[in-house]
Design brief:
The complex is a heterodimer of chains A (336) and B (497).
Chain A: H1 2-15, H2 17-36, H3 43-68, H4 76-94, H5 100-123, H6 129-147, H7 160-168, E1 170-171, E2 175-176, H8 177-195, H9 197-207, H10 209-214, H11 219-245, H12 257-267, H13 279-298, H14 306-335
Chain B: E1 7-16, E2 19-29, E3 34-38, H1 45-52, E4 60-65, E5 68-70, H2 75-80, E6 83-86, H3 98-102, H4 117-131, H5 146-159, E7 164-168, H6 176-191, E8 195-199, H7 203-209, E9 212-217, E10 220-226, H8 232-240, E11 257-266, E12 274-279, E13 283-288, H9 294-301, E14 307-314, E15 317-319, H10 324-330, E16 332-335, H11 339-343, H12 350-354, E17 363-364, E18 367-368, H13 370-383, H14 400-412, E19 418-422, H15 430-445, E20 449-453, H16 457-463, E21 466-471, E22 474-479, H17 486-494
Helix pairs in contact in B: 4-5, 14-15
The chains are: A mainly alpha (336), B alpha/beta (497).
Chain lengths: 336, 497
């Protein structure tokens, strides 16, 4: 059994190189920042970082499905804006008294429908994902502002129980709920991606759509599913974010969130060329982005410079990953 | 001819790794003549001309221009010497105008170092006038017909003061009328003292236009024919030349009809109707020249391209095939010509490639059965003797022959009734080739019907029970028994029946 144990460990490392690289970077920044500023390690700060890693993790997992097909979704932030105002509006103004689960169902159904439309436009009309979802970014923002009459929507003092169970509370008094959600969704997503035929089809078509099609895979349908998953999780993210903040201003709620989701996915090992990606890596990547945001603050980087530092760190992350990969590929090739 | 040749190739050798593409080939080209360079696929025609045009550098031998030895290390050097090669696939930028294409990379500039559009227009108009064409310098190339696009290439060559114009299969995508226009122009250019070299398959055209024919065979000079000597039989004899050593193939008894095409029409040649049958246990080769429509036909059967008309039956049942998925469900497998684009996913392991078409079978409520994958891939690897330490190996790291075995394994593991194999031995080494022939024979022995599309005469004659020959989208004929020889295939394939 000794040898199988060893080879299992080796396989684990080989299969998750990217995830491990990013995890190591995560730990390194966590340690270094803490050494400079001990309060970085305080339980309050760690909980806070986990909460945001969880919230952004949900949408990053969604977008990674699309990225694996070789596509992109730029409309996530606007869709969060739309569902973020719709959810409290429906709950309080439009359908008072309706069961929460029904309202969540309606919001998620709208999100899935949006994903379906993206997918159909991309596969059947053959528009480019960038263009379709860029238009989505504009359209859903406008819709959010129109339906809400440009008014900030929230729950006021109502639904505190719902907010507590879904977002504000902590599991075992330590793990913030959004992070629990991300882990649960992450496990489902990882199973879907790695253990089902759907996942295998996505990875195959992301690498070489023609070869997948020639092997009898209905590539269009698989891509449409990917966009539906992405929008579903973006819509769910909108619900979570508004439960967290208790106030969604339609003109800016969710602005740029797609970029944080994409950064997390790319840092976590998704290639924008398609066909590559692991859910654990995506969660680590998202956590790294959130950790860095906080670390930048703790390390006293002037607020004006914050974005530049973030951009630099993401660039560093993907560069290190690329270089390590190329080195590994060279060693594998020469070992043959 | 006592004149000095414009360009002369002397004892040229060209080796690509293990392949000796040109073996001591010599050829001379004189001003004011039209020369056809002929040979089968792989005879070395294109390689020789590419050596003259600076695309390839000869491994040995000399090239003389105007009687002086020169080296032609680049296409630019070739065009300085007046040698221009017009490829079969035209090298034009679709989105640019005629003028911009002609002067691409050597644009005349104004004194402010900006592109001098007026000068481009003036010189382009002059060239177009010389060619007797009607389009304008500002016409976008994408708006021109293929025939006119070719004229743009010729104009470009003339603008570089070309003296030797090499054209690779220039008429392959031209209409009858366009071909006539081209030939008239070629005669005009000849009258002006240019030498025009045609690389061509089409015997009738060669006979019409050429002053001289140079034939290559297996990378060597096979012979030359002067104007008076050019006729079909002599050309074919020089191209074929050798007696093939056919091993005694056991012809299995053909069983039930597994694939039947009735009046099938495809977009490649919409006016042609193709009908044929494949029987169980049969290997039917489909021969023809490049561009005869064989790939298009097989892809239409496999549901990649749409049928314009006609009907397909599989094992006696009429089938409607709209996608590769449908085709696979009815029991058809397709090994594509372009392995890396369509056959395999190079970054994925052997195992995942082998099970790619069968994922729906090796699953349980949507969950993949990893154990079955390992088992299927391991069996396939052993059956086809794929040389690899492990089925987890990335396919891209295997040799071409082993990659192709993975593609075959993918289909064999599904047990289809009909195999469509499109150039299954393209670009792989000799040893793997014969292994692949054995695999194909095994498929037929186990009761499948095999359509074996190939442009290599030797393998067609080696593996086929029957030969179907395509010519310009049409089924030109079927050869069986003693008729299955190189000359008959060439006659049908070139349409010189």
């Amino acid at each position: 059994m000794e040898t199988t144990q060893e080879s299992f460990l080796k396989r684990l490392i080989r299969g998750n190189q990217k995830t491990l690289t990013i995890f190591a970077l995560l730990v390194a920044i966590f340690i270094i920042t803490g050494l400079v500023h001990r309060t970085f390690w305080s339980s309050g700060n760690v909980t806070n970082m986990l909460r945001y890693a969880g919230l952004y993790g949900i949408i990053a997992i969604g977008v990674s499905f699309v990225i694996i097909t070789g596509g992109i979704d730029l409309s996530i932030g606007s869709l969060i804006g739309l569902t973020g105002v719709l959810f409290p509006m429906l709950l309080i103004d439009k359908m008072p008294g309706a069961p929460v689960i029904v309202v969540i169902g309606i919001v998620l159904a709208i999100s899935v429908l949006i994903g379906l439309i993206h997918g159909l436009l991309i596969t059947k009309v053959r528009l480019q994902p960038f263009v379709v979802t860029l238009c989505g970014l504009l359209i859903y923002r406008g819709l959010a502002r129109t339906v809400a009459n440009d008014q900030t929507k929230g729950f006021g003092n109502e639904f505190t129980g719902l907010r507590e169970t879904m977002v504000k509370g902590e599991l075992f008094g330590a793990i913030p709920m959004p992070f629990v959600w991300t882990i649960v969704i992450g496990i489902v997503a990882a199973v879907l991606l790695n253990m089902t035929t759907f996942g295998r089809y996505l990875l195959a078509l992301g690498r070489n759509e023609q070869a997948a099609k020639f092997s009898g895979i209905n590539t269009d349908r698989m891509k449409i599913f990917a966009y539906m998953i992405c929008s579903l999780l973006a819509g769910f993210g909108g619900i979570m974010f508004v439960l967290d903040s208790n106030g969604a201003t339609p003109s800016k709620f969710g602005n740029f969130y797609e970029l944080w989701a994409i950064s997390g996915a790319v840092l976590g090992g998704c290639s924008l060329r398609g066909g590559e990606g692991a859910i654990a890596g995506v969660i680590c990547g998202t956590a790294l982005v959130q950790l860095t945001t906080t670390a930048v603050f703790f390390l006293g980087v002037p607020d004006a410079l914050k974005w530049s530092v973030m951009g630099f760190i993401i660039l560093l992350g993907v560069t290190v990953d690329e270089v390590l990969n190329r080195y590994a590929a060279k060693r594998r090739a020469s070992a043959l | 001819m006592e004149k000095t040749p414009l360009i002369e190739a002397l004892g040229i050798h060209k080796r690509f790794l293990a392949v000796h593409a040109l073996n001591n080939v010599s050829a001379s080209f004189y001003p004011g003549e039209v020369v056809a360079v002929m040979g089968e696929n792989g005879a070395g025609r294109s390689t020789l001309m590419k050596c003259l045009a600076g695309v390839h550098i000869p491994s040995e031998g000399e090239i003389h221009v105007d009687g002086k030895a020169v080296s032609i290390p680049s296409v630019n050097r070739a065009s300085e010497l007046g040698v221009v090669f017009i490829h079969q696939e035209l090298n034009l930028s679709d989105n640019l105008s005629v003028g911009a294409n002609i002067f691409l990379g050597r644009e005349p500039l104004t004194k402010f170092r900006l592109i001098d559009h007026a000068e481009i227009r003036r010189r382009t108009a002059e060239l177009i006038g010389q060619l007797g064409m009607t389009f304008t310098p500002d016409t976008r190339v994408s708006d021109l017909s293929i025939g006119h696009q070719q004229m743009v290439e010729i104009a470009k060559a003339l603008s570089q003061d070309a003296r030797l114009l090499i054209m690779d299969e220039p008429t392959s995508s031209l209409t009858q009328h366009e071909t006539e226009v081209l030939f008239k122009l070629v005669r005009d250019l000849r009258a002006k003292g240019l030498c025009i070299v045609f690389i061509s398959h089409r015997l009738a055209e060669v006979k019409e236009i050429s002053d001289r024919v140079i034939v290559l065979r297996d990378g060597k000079n096979s012979g030359e024919l002067s104007r008076e000597e050019i006729d079909h039989d002599r050309m074919v004899a020089l191209m074929v030349g050798r007696e093939l050593n056919l091993h005694d193939k056991e012809h299995g008894t053909a069983g039930d009809v597994l694939l039947k095409l009735q009046d099938v029409q495809i977009a490649h040649a919409p006016e042609e109707k193709v009908s044929f049958e494949l029987r169980a246990g049969e290997i039917v080769a489909m021969a023809g020249l490049v561009g005869a429509g064989r790939t298009e036909l097989s892809q239409a059967i496999f549901g990649i391209a749409r049928l314009l008309g006609g009907a397909i039956e599989v094992a006696g049942q009429p089938v409607k095939i709209d996608s590769p998925r449908d085709a696979i469900a009815t029991g058809i497998a397709y090994v594509p010509e372009d392995r890396k684009q369509h056959g395999i996913i190079v970054e994925m392991p052997i195992r995942d490639n082998v099970v790619m078409a069968g994922l729906d079978r090796y699953q349980n409520y949507g969950f993949v059965q990893q154990g079955r994958h390992d088992q299927v891939a391991t069996e396939a690897k052993e059956k086809l003797s794929v040389k690899t330490p492990t089925i987890s190996q990335e396919v891209g790291l295997l040799s071409g022959g082993n990659q192709q075995k993975v593609v075959l394994a993918k289909w064999i593991s599904l047990g289809p009734k009909v195999f469509l194999l499109d150039e299954p031995t393209r670009g792989i080494d000799v040893g793997s080739k014969s292994e692949i022939y054995e695999v194909i024979e095994e498929m037929a022995k186990e009761g499948a019907a095999v359509l074996f599309i190939s442009s290599e005469m030797e393998e067609v004659l080696r593996v086929a029970d029957r030969i179907l020959v395509m010519h310009e989208g049409r089924l030109a004929g079927e050869l069986t028994g003693a008729d299955m020889n190189e000359e008959r295939v060439m006659q049908l394939a070139t349409g010189t029946n």
